[in-house]
């Protein structure tokens, strides 16, 4: 549990200076004391023989020796070595130093952040160090705070997304552990001074400061570091509330918890709550679950801890638990087998790809804040004077935590470094601009140098002034004045007075007040701390080789009184009774092109269930003349809130897109309770998210003003309402229970019965047989399914939405009239779009959705499917299939997302969320479980699956779907290891209900309970089959589907087994509850408002986009594709002009159709070619049949045509 600084085992020149030589005596002594960890570098802040830190090989040699001695003396237990690799492997000489976290936040690009984490991890591991103290997940809400540069900015959601991505990157190497820091509330300094005491209510702690850590733990972060501050007077390092109740109980974190530097001792030396170090150690260990103390300069902690244990022997179990977590981490990282990891990575340190990645992050993070009269980008031949203390200083681009704690100033120590001056030389040559600087970082300049600078500025059309902060880290970076040094401001004023167009570059780790600079500069670029490649990126932006796309991740204040006001402040934070105006708002950032936003649209305006989802969509168009990247941001506003004064707005979603000039794209965001809910301010009782019934407003773009307390007229704002007053989850349960309590046994079993539509249709007239409906209603039948079409009739191929609605409307009216007012639940196989609803746009099958690898697009396909199905009056969708196809002979492969459980999990969850984004639609995930593991490829074959395979390969997609909120499940046709699923207590009770904790409706597949007799042959009669299934499983509804004998059989079972009544009541309750959840008691035929939306142009575009993204190019010899538009082409094959073959089964009817005429929106390959190149640009002929037969005459003609064309496209 003890961690020491590297300096403790190095030979000292004096008290503060160490050599590069190990003190063998000290190392061996500490090894005998079982020291568990070392950390840090001891290089110091001066160059040694032209060097500024250890390289990877030198670090490895040092750590190798520490490991050898330690393991020799302590019984073979490796130490774990930690480093502050803050922006790249920032203590490893030769590594590429990447931009700081504040830049990474400004990029709004989590994929690029992942890459930064990956490079950092690899280079740190190359040095033999496994433990990285990062990322910082604090949110900076006071721009004076010296650690702002280490954060992702001021926003909790942005930090959550970026932090999780970075952690995944860091831990993508098996022998590296991330250590997220600083848990919790550290950054909320009231004065701006580092380590100041923080006062914060639990609401703020849980809703603003905790979410990034929750996201980090969900991303797999292996360790966490506590922090330097006290919260509400209670030092975190001794806080049971924070370091037991919150982190261990509420967040469920069971990894290693380490202190920050000397923090246990600081209870005595800084916080002054303990009168001795002994008391500090005793208090912290007894009150918290800290696993390791970053002591860091002596081993006295061990003595103090042992003294505590002697006085409190009951604490031994607590210490053993901590030691276990430390040992477990070492095992997880493989240190017992390979104590010095990363040997294979040494040669990769500092490679060109890393430089390119760091350069790309710099490009995407630099923020253009002002560009008056489009002064930028500059022409390559422009007359330019470059000046400023940061213009030729890579160290000032890098800030602190660079080779040493406080960083370096200058260029010589940066192997990969490119200053702004060097960047300009690289881009336009050193004769294309004039460079001179006499300004110092503190703002001072001699009269002579100022005179020269004024003279040069007056001689050039443009003057680029690079200014900003000196290097710093942590407490030494405290400032008393938030403004830039006065001399820097006056320097800009003086040069601007010459008439030159001033372009100001800022290199700073926090937003410093600019005074008159915004009035005197034609352009302002905030580089923040882009580090080594920042000068190159800056030059590329200045001259337009790169279009800037960075956005401020933190508010840029204008006045000193407003430095601690983040954009998402509470509505009561006002300046002189009005909003506090800032220099630039969170999310600000200009581009060299223009982006136009359409009105934002919502797919619904009322949320009746807090667990529902809502989709907001906006179309973004690049109306400028060049390509550009834009970060689309969605904010949520709750104008009135009871639990706590509301914020002005909160970022909830963002997406960075790239558009060519003139290009448009739809950007959709799905919102849920995670977005509109807040955590109840309670700690130690589990995290509880609550949702208030209220009006909410969606706002797109950071500068959008919605005027929510007056009339909302801004088209980028959209209002919706959450009203769960009559349908809260507990209310559903209670109401369903009250309804079912009054049911007779006949009503119970009737609700559990589902019939196909054909049972109530007249075969001759094809009209609804109302007598049959009435008869079944008197039997309390709870559900119908399916369509009645099996062939074309009078040129139609299925019911359109209005026709379906008419039939279902009448079924509902008769049923509710006869059964006491209980609606039926109508279900259908909307497998690829609303494929039984004539006129709807048919989507690519699930196998295509899987091939797209685009869950956002899958969500959109599902959303359209749900809307069109609901337009037909149908609330229950039998999909998605979550089986994974592992035999390509299987006939249902096209209905799956493919063979991989993770892919099926991600896509299935997206599809479920899309299907249930409409309040009156329920997904029914199928077929639980193992159905697809056919050994022969024949459908419904018995499967043999060990539990390991079942749980690890076949179960995860269902788990993901249930976590996504799937309301219902369908079991499957198969037997597993000889046990039919439909009668398996193990599968349908133990696994589904107990292990997965599913409490929604469980439906059998078609006729499957009867199949215990008809197919599986494990029951001698259908009646025995019904009794067996109902007694052994928790099935809630039987898809009978063609008679009501099930009701009689179930009642007979109940008569013989009266103890089963409670089980049947539970099933009937679940059926009634879902009808309540879907609002069917109030609106039995939902979706009338969607009828006119069926088959709209946007749906067609979505289906087309899914087709585009899912089609797979498998071979392209000699780049034969793409074809020139004028190519000589012969098109042939039975599938070349047949939309039916593009759609296959489950298309209007079960087995689908062949042909084109039935597809209102259909485009065959032949038609597609005609649309694209005209029908005179290719020749079409086909005589081939789908079975492969072709007449000799047709074959001869096809051969002749093929020989006449350069290209033959054969669609088969």
TrEMBL record:
The keyword Cell inner membrane does not apply. It holds the Pfam family Fn3-like. GO terms for biological process: glucan catabolic process. It is an enzyme of class 3 (hydrolase). It comes from the Eukaryota. InterPro entries: Cellulose_Degrad_GH3, Fn3-like, GH, Glyco_hydro_3_C, Glyco_hydro_3_C_sf, Glyco_hydro_3_N, Glyco_hydro_3_N_sf, Ig-like_fold. Its EC number is 3.2.1.21. This is beta-glucosidase. It comes from Phytophthora palmivora.
């Amino acid at each position: 549990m003890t961690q020491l600084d590297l300096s403790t085992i190095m030979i000292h020149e004096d008290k503060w200076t160490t050599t590069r030589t190990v003190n063998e005596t000290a190392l061996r002594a500490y090894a005998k004391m079982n020291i568990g960890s070392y950390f840090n570098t001891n290089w110091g802040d001066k160059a040694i023989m032209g060097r500024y830190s250890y390289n990877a090989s030198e670090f490895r040699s040092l750590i190798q020796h520490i490991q050898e001695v330690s393991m020799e003396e302590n019984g073979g237990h490796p130490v774990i070595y930690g480093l502050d690799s803050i922006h790249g492997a920032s203590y490893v000489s030769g590594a590429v130093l990447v931009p700081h976290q504040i830049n990474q936040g400004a990029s709004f690009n989590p994929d690029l952040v992942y890459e930064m984490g990956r490079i950092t991890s690899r280079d740190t591991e190359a040095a033999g160090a496994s433990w990285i103290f990062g990322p910082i997940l604090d949110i900076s809400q006071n721009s004076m705070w010296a650690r702002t540069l280490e954060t992702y900015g001021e926003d909790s959601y942005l930090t959550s997304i970026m932090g999780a991505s970075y952690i995944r990157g860091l831990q993508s190497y098996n022998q590296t552990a991330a250590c997220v820091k600083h848990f919790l509330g550290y950054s909320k300094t009231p004065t701006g001074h580092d380590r100041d005491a923080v006062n914060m209510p639990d609401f703020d702690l849980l809703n603003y400061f905790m979410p990034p850590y929750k996201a980090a733990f969900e991303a797999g972060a292996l360790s966490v570091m506590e922090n330097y501050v006290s919260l509400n007077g209670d030092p975190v390092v001794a806080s049971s509330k924070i370091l037991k109740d919150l982190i261990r109980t509420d967040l469920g974190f069971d990894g290693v918890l380490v202190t920050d530097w000397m923090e246990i001792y600081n209870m005595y030396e800084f916080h002054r709550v303990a009168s001795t170090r002994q008391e500090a150690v005793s208090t912290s260990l007894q009150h918290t679950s800290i696993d390791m103390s970053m002591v860091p300069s002596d081993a006295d902690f061990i003595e103090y801890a042992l003294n505590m244990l002697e006085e409190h022997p009951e604490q031994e179990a607590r210490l053993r638990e901590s030691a276990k977590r430390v040992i477990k981490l070492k095992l997880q990282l493989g240190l017992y087998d390979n104590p010095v990891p990363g040997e294979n990575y040494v040669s990769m340190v500092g490679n060109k790809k890393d430089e390119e990645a760091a350069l790309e992050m710099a490009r995407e993070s630099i923020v253009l804040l002002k560009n008056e009269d489009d002064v930028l980008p500059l022409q390559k031949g422009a007359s330019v004077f470059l000046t400023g203390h940061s213009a030729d200083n890579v160290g000032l681009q890098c800030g602190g935590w660079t080779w040493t704690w406080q960083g370096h100033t200058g260029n010589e120590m940066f192997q990969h470094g490119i200053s702004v001056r060097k960047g300009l030389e690289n881009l336009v040559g050193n004769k294309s601009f004039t460079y001179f600087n006499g300004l110092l970082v503190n703002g001072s300049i001699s009269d002579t140098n100022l005179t020269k600078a004024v003279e040069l500025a007056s001689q050039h059309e443009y003057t680029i002034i690079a200014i900003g902060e000196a290097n710093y880290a942590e407490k030494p970076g405290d400032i008393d004045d938030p403004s830039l040094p006065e001399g820097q401001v006056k320097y800009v004023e003086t040069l601007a007075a010459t008439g030159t167009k001033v372009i100001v570059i800022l290199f700073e780790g926090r937003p410093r007040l600019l005074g008159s600079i915004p009035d005197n500069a034609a352009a302002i670029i905030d580089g923040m701390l882009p580090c080594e490649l920042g000068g190159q990126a800056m030059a590329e932006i200045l001259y337009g080789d790169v279009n800037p796309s960075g956005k401020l991740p933190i508010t840029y204040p204008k006045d000193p009184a407003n430095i601690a006001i983040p954009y998402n402040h509470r509505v009561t934070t006002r300046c002189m009774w009005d909003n506090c105006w800032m220099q630039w708002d969170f999310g600000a950032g200009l581009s060299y092109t223009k982006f136009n936003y359409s009105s934002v649209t919502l797919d619904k305006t009322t949320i009746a269930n807090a667990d529902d989802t809502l989709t907001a969509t906006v179309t973004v168009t690049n109306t400028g003349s060049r390509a550009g990247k834009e970060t689309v941001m969605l904010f949520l506003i709750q104008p009135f809130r009871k639990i706590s004064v509301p914020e002005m707005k909160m970022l909830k979603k963002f997406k960075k897109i790239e558009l060519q000039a003139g290009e448009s794209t739809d950007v959709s965001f799905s919102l849920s309770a995670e977005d509109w809910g807040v955590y109840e301010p309670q700690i130690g009782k589990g995290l509880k998210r609550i949702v208030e019934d209220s009006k909410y407003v969606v706002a797109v773009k950071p500068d959008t003003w919605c005027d929510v307390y007056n009339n909302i007229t801004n088209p980028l704002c959209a209002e919706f309402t959450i009203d769960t007053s009559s349908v809260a989850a507990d209310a559903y349960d209670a109401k369903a229970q009250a309804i079912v309590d009054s049911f007779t046994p006949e009503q119970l079993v009737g609700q559990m019965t589902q019939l196909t539509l054909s049972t109530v249709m007249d075969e001759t007239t094809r009209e609804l047989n109302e007598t049959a409906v009435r008869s079944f209603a008197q039997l309390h039948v709870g559900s119908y399914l399916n369509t009645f079409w099996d062939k074309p009739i009078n040129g139609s191929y299925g019911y359109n939405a209005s026709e379906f609605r008419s039939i279902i409307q009448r079924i509902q009216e008769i049923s509710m009239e006869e059964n006491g007012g209980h609606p039926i639940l109508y279900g259908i196989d909307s497998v690829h779009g609303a494929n039984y609803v004539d006129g709807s746009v048919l989507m690519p099958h699930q196998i295509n959705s899987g091939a797209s690898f685009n869950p956002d697009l899958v969500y959109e396909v599902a959303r359209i499917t749900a809307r069109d199905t609901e337009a037909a009056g149908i609330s229950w969708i039998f999909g998605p299939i979550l089986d994974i196809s592992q035999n390509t002979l299987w006939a249902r492969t096209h209905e799956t997302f493919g063979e991989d459980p993770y892919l099926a999990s991600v896509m299935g969850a997206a599809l479920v969320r899309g299907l249930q984004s409409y309040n009156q639609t329920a997904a029914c995930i199928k077929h639980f479980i193992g159905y697809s593991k056919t050994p022969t490829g024949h459908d419904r074959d018995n499967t043999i699956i060990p539990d390991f395979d079942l749980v690890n390969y076949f179960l995860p997609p269902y788990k993901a779907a249930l976590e996504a909120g799937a309301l219902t499940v369908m079991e499957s046709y198969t037997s597993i290891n000889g046990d039919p699923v439909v009668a398996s207590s193990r599968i349908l009770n133990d696994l589904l209900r107990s292990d997965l904790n599913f409490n929604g409706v469980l439906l059998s597949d078609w006729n499957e309970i009867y199949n215990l007799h008809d197919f599986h042959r494990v029951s001698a009669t259908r009646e025995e089959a019904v009794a067996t299934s109902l007694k052994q499983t928790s099935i809630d509804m039987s898809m009978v589907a063609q008679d009501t004998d099930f009701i009689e059989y179930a009642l007979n079972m109940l008569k013989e087994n009266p103890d089963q009544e409670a089980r049947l009541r539970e099933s009937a309750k679940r059926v009634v509850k879902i009808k309540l959840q879907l609002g069917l008691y109030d609106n039995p035929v939902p979706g009338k408002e969607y009828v006119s939306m069926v088959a709209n142009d946007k749906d067609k575009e979505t289906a087309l986009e899914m087709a585009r993204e899912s089609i797979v190019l498998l071979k392209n010899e000699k780049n034969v594709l793409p074809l020139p538009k004028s190519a000589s082409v012969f098109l042939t094959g039975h599938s070349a002009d047949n939309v039916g073959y593009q759609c296959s089964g489950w298309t209007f009817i079960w087995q689908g159709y062949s042909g084109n005429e039935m597809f209102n929106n259909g485009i065959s390959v032949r038609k597609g070619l005609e649309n694209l190149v005209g029908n005179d640009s290719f020749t079409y002929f086909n005589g081939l049949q789908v079975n492969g037969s072709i007449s000799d005459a047709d074959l001869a003609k096809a051969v002749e045509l093929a020989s006449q064309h350069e290209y033959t496209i054969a669609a088969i």
